[in-house]
Structure formats: structure tokens, C-alpha cells
């Protein structure tokens, strides 16, 4: 549902895309009011992880004003100035660290001080991207916009599985006055597969079984497959048992596709076979490679954001089929910044077939950046 604008305040209804709206509000400096947040639910209002996100935004900004109704079903958010600097935040275990880390990744280059954030919580969660995926697939995308990687770093100190977490990461991001425009229409062929399997408070043989199963699938396609095992012990293993895998395919044009899978939460009645987990992750990676495009499908929205905020020049990128999250994000970008993307469907025919739809549909995204400038960073 499109936003209603009253006195330069964007008014939305419902709890969907809550994170998108607060993120774009913080970047644009426009206040936002969100009403009817789960008002018809048995447990109405904001969830704990959403309140936790507001606290994080409050820590990295100065002058943010938040008004919440008694029932928690209505929120008024007036963003402050992005400060950044040293931040330590305990994330809500209902969501993964990735839920919060993606926000910091989007805001980091525009802070006043270089961001140095310590996030604690669940490092791998079914609902969110894992810290491994952010490190291997998202940071290279940001690097294309800021060019110099001095100070761009993501370090996994400890891993933590749900429900109790206990993981910790350190994220450092340099500040930039503006982002450069980007032309990214080629992504090349996959040349190598890398991965990591982690085992927390479970038998180390679990990790080896996952590796063998994943390798069994990937070696059918290319020989350069190498998967590390990360068998954490003691305090480094977090507070809950669990194991999982993260696979990355790298192309010869430095594009990264990532897929993940993890065991079911401790405490549930069901269990996960390591062999099934390895195969499932390998199949997900093959699906991601089939979609193709310049970025991983879960990072399309970040690419769109940085393209829109770039210098006043044309940026273009070809991505795989757009995810629902990305489509909604493009609508939000128009409402907050007035940026319109030209979307062009590219239909390519497979060489060995007369049919069209054999190859996954590609979308060419083109926009003119708004010339967003980090007012805190003076020109050298």
C-alpha cells in the first residue's frame, strides 16, 4: 500500500517492510509514521526484535526521536544525524545478526565517524542472511561503490546458533563523501566454489559429513571445490548446539553467489541429517547460479540503494529475477527519494534449445543517482 504524505511525514500501515522504512527514513531525513502494526493480531504491536532495531538506529544517530503508542501499534520515527563511531549492541535472538548488520552496511558509508560496531547474538538464522554471506557476498558489492577498502572489515569472533545465540561479530566501515556510479552488466562464469561448515556443541563428524555431501554435488560441475570446517569449542561455540554450511561461488568477473543451510533449532522435535543439509545447500547454490545476474538475489535491494544514492550519473546493473523484497524496496525508494528505476526484461535464448524461457529471466536496472552527499565528510 503506497504511503500517504501529511506535513512531509510519510504514513504507512502495517508491520511489513518495517526495516526498509526506518532505514530509508534515516538516510533521507524524512519522518515516518507507521500505524496499525499487527493491530488485528492476538499479540498486537511491535515485536522485541523491531524495538531492538530502533535502539540500534538510536545508537548510531544523534537526535533521533521515537514516539510509540501504549499498545505498540503506532510508531512515529523522526531520524537524527548519522554519527557512527564505536557501537556495541546486543541483538534480539528472535532474529539473526544479519537483520541488523544489513542496516549498518547500508548506513555505514554515510556516517560522520567510521563505523566500528560489535554485534552480539545469533550469527545464523533461518529468516536472515548469515554473517558469512554478508562477508563473502555483500562486502564486495559495497567495494565496487567505494573503491578503496581501507577499513572495510567483518570479523566473526564467535558463532552462535538459535535459540540462545552467544555469537559476536565486529564490523568496520569507512566513510565516503559520495558513492561512484556503477555499470555492471557482465558477471562471467563460475570458476571456483568455496565454503565453510560450522559445528557448534555437536560431534565434529557432523561437519565432515556435511562437507562430503556438498562436495559430492558440486564436483559434478567443476573441480575447484574447497570447503573449510569450523569446529568451535568452549565459549567460541555459543550457547546453543547446531551446525550449518555456507557455500560461495566466485565467477571470473568477481561476482559472488552464496547459499546457506542450517540444522533445525535445538529443542524442536525434528532433527537434521548432515548429508541432507549438504545436498540442500549445494542445490540452493546451483539455483542461485542459474538465476545469475551481477549480485546474489538476497542483495539486490542493497545494490539498488547504492545505485540510487550514487553521483548524478547513470548507473546500470543486470540482475536475476527480482525478489518480492527488492520490488517493494524500489517502490519505497521512489516514495522517500523520488528515484525511478527503468526495469528492462532481457530474454536470452539458450544455445542448445529453440525455447526462450530455459535461461532464467534477467532484469536490467537503470537509474540516475540523486547525488547523495555525506554532509559530515568534508572534501579533501
Would you kindly provide a written description of the structure presented here, covering whatever features stand out?
The chain has about 375 residues and is of the alpha+beta class. Helix content is about 30%, strand content about 30%. It is built from eight helices and 19 strands. The strands form five sheets. Strands 1-2-3-6-5 form a five-stranded mixed beta sheet, with helices on one face. A four-stranded mixed beta sheet has the order 8-9-11-10, covered by helices on one side. Strands 12-17-19-18 form a four-stranded mixed beta sheet, covered by helices on one side. α7 packs parallel to α8. The longest helix is centred in the last third of the chain and has 18 residues, at about 275-290.
Can you summarize this structure?
The chain is α+β, with helices and mostly antiparallel strands.
Order of helices and strands: EEHEHEEEEEHEHEEEEHEEEHHEHEE
Portion in strands? 25-35%
How would you sum up the major sheet?
5 strands, mixed
Q: Let me know the number of strands.
A: 19
Mean pLDDT over all positions: 91
Give the strand order of the largest sheet, numbering strands 1, 2, ... along the chain.
1-2-3-6-5
Distance between the termini: 43 Å
Could you name the ranges where pLDDT drops below 50 across 5 or more consecutive residues?
none
**Helicity range:** 25-40%
Shape estimate: globular
Question: How big is the Rg?
Answer: 21 Å
Total helix count? 8
- Structural class by SSE content: alpha+beta
Amino acid at each position: 500500500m503506497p504511503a500517504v504524505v501529511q506535513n512531509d511525514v510519510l504514513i504507512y500501515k502495517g508491520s511489513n517492510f518495517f526495516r526498509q522504512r526506518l532505514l530509508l527514513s534515516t538516510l533521507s531525513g524524512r519522518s515516518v509514521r507507521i500505524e496499525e502494526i499487527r493491530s488485528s493480531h492476538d499479540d498486537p504491536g511491535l515485536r522485541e526484535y523491531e524495538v531492538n532495531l530502533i535502539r540500534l538506529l538510536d545508537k548510531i544517530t544523534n537526535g533521533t526521536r521515537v514516539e510509540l503508542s501504549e499498545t505498540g501499534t503506532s510508531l512515529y520515527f523522526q531520524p537524527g544525524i548519522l554519527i557512527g563511531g564505536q557501537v556495541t549492541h546486543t541483538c534480539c535472538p528472535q532474529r539473526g545478526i544479519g537483520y541488523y548488520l544489513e542496516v549498518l552496511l547500508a548506513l555505514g558509508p554515510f556516517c560522520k565517524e567510521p563505523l566500528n560496531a560489535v554485534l552480539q547474538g545469533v550469527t545464523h538464522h533461518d529468516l536472515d542472511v548469515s554473517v558469512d554471506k554478508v562477508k563473502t557476498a555483500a562486502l564486495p558489492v559495497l567495494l565496487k561503490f567505494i573503491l578503496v577498502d581501507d577499513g572495510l572489515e567483518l570479523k566473526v569472533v564467535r558463532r552462535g546458533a538459535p535459540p540462545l545465540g552467544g555469537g559476536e561479530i565486529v564490523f568496520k566501515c569507512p566513510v565516503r563523501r559520495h558513492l561512484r556510479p556503477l555499470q555492471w552488466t557482465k558477471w562471467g562464469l563460475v570458476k571456483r566454489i568455496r565454503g565453510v561448515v560450522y559445528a557448534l556443541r555437536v560431534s565434529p563428524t557432523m561437519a565432515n559429513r556435511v562437507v562430503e555431501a556438498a562436495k559430492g554435488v558440486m564436483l559434478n560441475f567443476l573441480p575447484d571445490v574447497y570447503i573449510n570446517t569450523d569446529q568451535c569449542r568452549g565459549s567460541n561455540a555459543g550457547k546453543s548446539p547446531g551446525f550449518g554450511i555456507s557455500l560461495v561461488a566466485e565467477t571470473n568477473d568477481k561476482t559472488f553467489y552464496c547459499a546457506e543451510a542450517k540444522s533445525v533449532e535445538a529443542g524442536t522435535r525434528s532433527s537434521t541429517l548432515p548429508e541432507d543439509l549438504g545436498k540442500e545447500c549445494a542445490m540452493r547454490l546451483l539455483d542461485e547460479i542459474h538465476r545469475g545476474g551481477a549480485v546474489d538475489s538476497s542483495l539486490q535491494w542493497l545494490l539498488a540503494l547504492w545505485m540510487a544514492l550514487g553521483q548524478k550519473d547513470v548507473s546500470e546493473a543486470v540482475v536475476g529475477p527480482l525478489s518480492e523484497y527488492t520490488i517493494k524496496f524500489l517502490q519505497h525508494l521512489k516514495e522517500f527519494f523520488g528515484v525511478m528505476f527503468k526495469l528492462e526484461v532481457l530474454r536470452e535464448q539458450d544455445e542448445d534449445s529453440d525455447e526462450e524461457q530455459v535461461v532464467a529471466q534477467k532484469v536490467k536496472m537503470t537509474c540516475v543517482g540523486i547525488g547523495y552527499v555525506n554532509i559530515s565528510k568534508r572534501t579533501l
